[in-house]
Amino acid sequence: MNWQELSGQLSQGLLLDEPMARHTSFKIGGPSEAFARPGSMTELKACLDFAAKESVPVFFLAGGTNLLVRDAGIRGLTLKLEGEFKEIRFEGLQVHVGAGANLALLSQKAAKQGLSGLEFAVGIPGTVGGGLVMNAGAHGSDLSAVTTRISYVENGVVTEIPGSEAGFEYRSSRFKNSPALLLWADMVLKAGDLSEIQKAMDAVTAKRRSTQPQSVPNAGCVFKNPAGESAGRLIEACGLKGASVGGAQISEVHANFVVNTGGAKAADVLALMERARNAVMDKFQIRLQDEVLVVGEA
Known about the structure:
It is a single chain. By secondary structure, the protein is an alpha+beta fold. The protein contains seven helices and 19 strands. A five-stranded antiparallel β-sheet has the order 6-7-13-11-12, with helices on one face. A four-stranded mixed β-sheet has the order 1-2-5-3. Strands 15-18-17-16 form a four-stranded antiparallel β-sheet. The chain is globular. The mean pLDDT is 96.
């Protein structure tokens, strides 16, 4: 593969055999065959054109915060949007935001503008694009509540759709497990009192700190909450808090979190998730569904 041909078209070049552990909040993951950071539509088009010409599979990396990369890594080209894709622009009650922008930063900037609607996102790591794919949310709200328009590229074609056509569901959207790459989104917020907005954000932050593991690498909740239930409560009821496989451990703070206590492999995490899934099925006849996205070669 003539990766140098593509590298010459990118301002940040191309990284070969780049460990994905460097790019995930889990600090886990084998190497990406090639890793590019396009900062403009021109560079992104160069990456997509090269991949199409060479029949190279493409993986779109968001913030790496709700992601588990298997130990053999990712074949082909991994793309992480930077540069113009991280822009945030406010116009009255509307915000135009690039898919590569940090979601928590967007929440903070909206608050400074006296805009309400994104307080729930202040503690959610990762990018806007990844958040939209997963319909990130907390404390009774999510991105579907504020998103009015989305732009994405699929099979080389750039498309815009209203937020109502994004197929938003609980921790999912039409973009999950699809070949589409989100580019930007428009959101509409509400005018609010700055002190009240900050108070709500402080409450969200305090709750996250008291109920979730903060000091060890993790990828957030690994399972979706079943309807009317808490995955963490179910796993804890099976006596699995603190259970471990290799360097992976079910958090002693919140049982729906798996943490990397040091040197964990993806195989350790997957084995622990399967143990929890089987235990909950045996005890409660409830099949837990993955919330964390698992990618790469086994």
